[in-house]
Design a protein that fits this description.
By secondary structure, the protein is mainly β. It has strands at about 5-10, 20, 30, 40, 45-50, 50-55, 60-65, 70-75.
Length: about 100
């Protein structure tokens, strides 16, 4: 945590993180879009959609102006949870 921001470190990022699009076996293409699907929670336990930006090869800064002291961060958690409350695994039926 750094003030009202949380830092997320990724261990395995290849040549680095990027915001991009990827189709089938084509290389990923960088796009000028903001990061999506990050959420942040304060000590009351309520999750709020957060702002996020890549700040280094393997690091993302996550924040929301109305959360003064964040305690948790999550990514892609809210979509289609299973009965136990965990997110369903990401999948695609496209042929690669």
């Amino acid at each position: 945590m750094l003030g009202n921001k949380m830092l997320v470190y990724f261990s395995h990022v290849g040549s680095g993180l990027m915001v991009g699009h990827k189709e089938l076996t084509n290389d990923a293409e960088s796009v000028n879009e903001s990061l999506a699907w990050f959420e942040i929670a304060s000590d009351d336990g309520k999750w709020i959609k957060a702002e996020a930006k890549i700040i280094s090869k393997n690091e993302v800064e996550v924040y929301f102006s109305e959360v003064a002291i964040p305690v948790n961060v999550r990514y892609a958690w809210y979509s289609y949870p299973e009965k136990e409350g965990f997110p369903a695994a990401i999948l695609s039926s496209e042929k690669l």
